[in-house]
Amino acid sequence: MHKIDLPKDVVERVAARRGRRHAFDPIEPARTALLVVDLQNYFMEPGQACEVPFAREIVPNVNGLARATRAAGGAVVWIRMTQSPEEMKRWSVFYGALNTKARGTEEMHRLSEGDHGHALWPTLETEDGDLYVPKRRFSAFIQGSSGLEATLRARGIDTVIVTGTTTNTCCQTTALDAMMLDFKVIFAADATATFTDAAHNAVLANVLNCFGDVRMTAEIEALLGTPATRAAAE
Fold it and tell me: What 3-state DSSP class applies to 212?
């Protein structure tokens, strides 16, 4: 698990600007969605080209948040990076310039529907009634990436809890764009993961500084206000 280290000066500056440490306290659980970003075999399985070992360690926290969100009447959304040969053409800068042709082609195949790499990690606890959203860019909210915004708006969702991998790519861009679209953002510090502690903590500081709240899983579960978490918080 990542060692969480938020800079004291950032925390103090945010508290002074907001008038309190956390902007979103309380929340409305029924208007809240847990976003689980890219916890797919390609990013989690040992030996995969984009394996993130820390991502395997956050699964119990993600599952706990999913249970708490459902119990509180919120929505659980499983978001999967989904690519195709057509996307390689439409996203030519990423596939043609920021990756070698061989690496880009391999990633596209591993993240195509039906491939083993595209599937959700097997120990994630999905349930009937959960939502499944494919996305085509790092951010699930950027124009043309997915139908996530419309899905959440239709359900009256105004708050999103961001979990998944990688912290500094798909989780960060999804969180930043969510705030820019006027969603309340809670970023789960111990239910997101990337390759290094330094990269992880840099994103936590950035999100806290200007884009939302950063909280630990236990705090978020208490915020969701289910009977079990209320009792634990008392």
Answer: coil
149-205 pLDDT tens trace: 999 999 999 999 999 999 999 999 999 999 999 999 999 999 999 999 999 999 999
Task: Look at the pTM and tell me if it is higher than 0.70.
Answer: yes
CATH architecture of 8-226: 3-Layer(aba) Sandwich (3.40)
| CA–CA distance, 59 with 57 (Å, rounded to integer) | 6
Question: Is the pLDDT reported for residue 233 higher than 70?
Answer: no
67: amino acid identity, one letter: R
Cα separation, 67 vs 143, in Å, equals 30
Q: Report residue 110 as tokens.
A: 């591993």
Q: Which residue ranges make up each domain of the chain?
A: 8-226
Q: Minimal CA–CA distance to 108: which of 122, 125, 98, 95?
A: 95
Q: What is the dihedral of CA 4, 2, 125, 158, to 10 degrees?
A: 40
